Amino acid sequence: MVNGVGRLARGLRASLRNNGQAYGFSVSITVAMALLNSEAGTPGVAHLVYFALGAALAFSALEALATSGFRKPLETEPDTVTAMGVSLSLVSVSASTAAAWACAHFVGGTAAWPLASFLVSVVYLVVAGGELALADRAKAAASHGDPAGDGSSGVGS
Fold first, then answer.
1. Residue 20 above 80 pLDDT?
2. pLDDT at 21
3. Residue 155: exposure state from Cβ atoms within 10 A (0-12, 13-18, ≥19)
4. What is the 3-state composition of the chain as percent helix, strand, coil, each rounded to the nearest 5?
């Protein structure tokens, strides 16, 4: 039984590591569509295409910016930083949802569809990046003075 629990725990950690930020973005973009449907009216096919294109444009633009025009690779974060950053996702989900609501409520109409998905994508990714930066800073502060850099004290290691 213990072995089964250990496997489940390991599987849960892998699932959280591999899906954490994508899950938060999925929640944000889904809520954005529901808000638009509620505030800006039932979409037609064109609205949905505009919505998809707005989100895709945001990802493409931020990817180009983050990689200096696709010349630098995207670095990976240590698992502990990712875990802590994802645990802060209430902030990125809330901020991007608020952006979607504001766009749906104040812009409305056809223009709200691509604009909301663009804003949700930009706000989510930028704030989630801030969450990871905060987690990285917390990890660095916790391991300050640790020669191994892994947060261990070295006692009993």
1. yes
2. 86
3. exposed
4. 80, 0, 20
**Phi, psi dihedral angles at 42 (to 5 degrees):** -60, 130
Contact 90, 97 (CB under 8 A): no
Task: Identify residue 22 by its one-letter amino acid code.
Answer: A
> Across the chain, what does the average pLDDT equal?
87
Is the whole model's pTM more than 0.85, yes or no? Answer: no
Long-range contacts of 72-78 (CB under 8 A, 24+ apart): 77/132, 77/135, 77/136, 78/139
Tokens at 151, concatenated:
């947060």
List the one residue out of 49, 124, 39, 51 whose CA is nearest residue 89. 124
Band of the pLDDT at 11, cuts 50, 70, 90? confident
DSSP 69: T
- pLDDT of amino acid 157: 39
Q: Report the pLDDT value the prediction gives residue 78, as an integer from 0 to 100.
A: 80
Helix axes 2-39, 89-102, angle to 10 degrees: 20
The amino acid at 18 = N
Cα 131 to Cα 137: distance, rounded to the nearest angstrom: 10
